[in-house]
Predict the 3D structure of the following.
Amino acid sequence: MVRRMRCQRWTLLLFLAGVWTCTPAEDSVKSRLYSHTESVSLPDNTNLAGIIIITIDTLRADVLGTYGHPRIQTPNLSELAEHGVLFQQAMAPSTTTTPSHASLFTSLYLQDHNVYSNFEALGNEPETIAEMLFGRGFATSAIVNMKHLNPEISNLGQGFQHIVRSGFMRKAGPSLDQLVRWLDHIGEQRFFSWVHLADVHTPYQPPPPYDRFYYHGDEKNPEITSLQDIWNFLPSHMSDHPFFLSWLRGIRDLDWVIGQYHGAVTYVDDEIGRLMDALEERELLNKTAIIVTSDHGESLGEHDLYFVHAGLYESTVRVPLIMYFPNSKHHGVVVHDVIETVDVLPTILEYLDLPSPETIRGRSLWPLIEGKAQPPRTAFIEHAGRNLIGLRTERYKYIKHRKTKHLLPSYPFIKGHEELYDLQDDPAELHNIAAQSPEIIREFREELERRTSKKLEYKTGEAKITPEMLDVLQALGYIQ
Ligand SMILES: [Zn+2]
């Protein structure tokens, strides 16, 4: 706790001075977290109080300090990573909220659970991690902050005894306070909690002082035209929507918008730090496994895509994944292999010494955490609405367009079109080398055929969507 308070104070002072130096690496004060030093294969979970999984909606990996961002302050997530495991190349199965969360909680791909949009519901047949743990005596709770994640629409409430529903984008602070109140309520029972945070989704609206952490100009200066200049790149359902227009009314500077996203990242990190303080006060911090990830990233201008998570580029599919297991000798571990967020479920189950269902797609990450070489993985990624499908290896990204659609002015989908990027030489995915790489393309086509021929095709559930919800989904860019 001492460490975080000191860092926060310095952060504010240095912010006022326009200087940033308070990084976890420079802060030598002892962390609140400590780790087991005996040689054990898996962490000793006999004293485990519970598991918290936090999904920070729309958080791309590369904006976190712990993933190497030079300016954005995320000292609390860095602290978790330094005492846990950080996955450098974690891939989301989709770039849309409900499908991606459905995959996280079932360890199934979209083509298996069949949830391809935010107005579809997970079926009852696939077993979720919450159902598995509730069935084994865990107290379970979920806090969600988007209406389409509410149980009557997403059916992602399966297995959760206590659900704090979304009104409309509750901020991280009150959301995590709800979690602490629930932990106080359940007493000694082992728990599994999911907290979904929406602060870094549009409209990015971090509270003061975070709104000025990374932007120091005059966002309404009439001489600035940078936001106007990109306005035509926005999909019409966003640029014409009253919700979007009211957020950006009077704003002229594109950098302000991006600064709000970055500020929201630091705000969420500070609130996670406050949660860690609350856990420490209750002597729970070193008995609680904490997993932080996201459902997808966000485009902040890459490929002329602004404030959307459409497409399958790295900005939208590479997500953070930090796993902190108390009493673990595996602290400060960085895994560079390509992995997928469908791997989270079997990793939790192995930690709890529970068997994984045979039908799941993910694999336990424990061998990688323990430093054992594993065969290279190919991540399988599907776009909402079945528009695109992609494969991601250590070196390449392959994207196939499945439909012709003009949703995004700067990125038309053209049925049959293929994209191939060499991420080693071209990490920004600017040069499509599909035409000059017939052998590599052939291999990816065969792999795609193998993957799509094995789908499980569960029935989806019934999403109860009101007219008001349709408007919200449209405002968020999910319905055209
Ligand atoms: Zn999302």
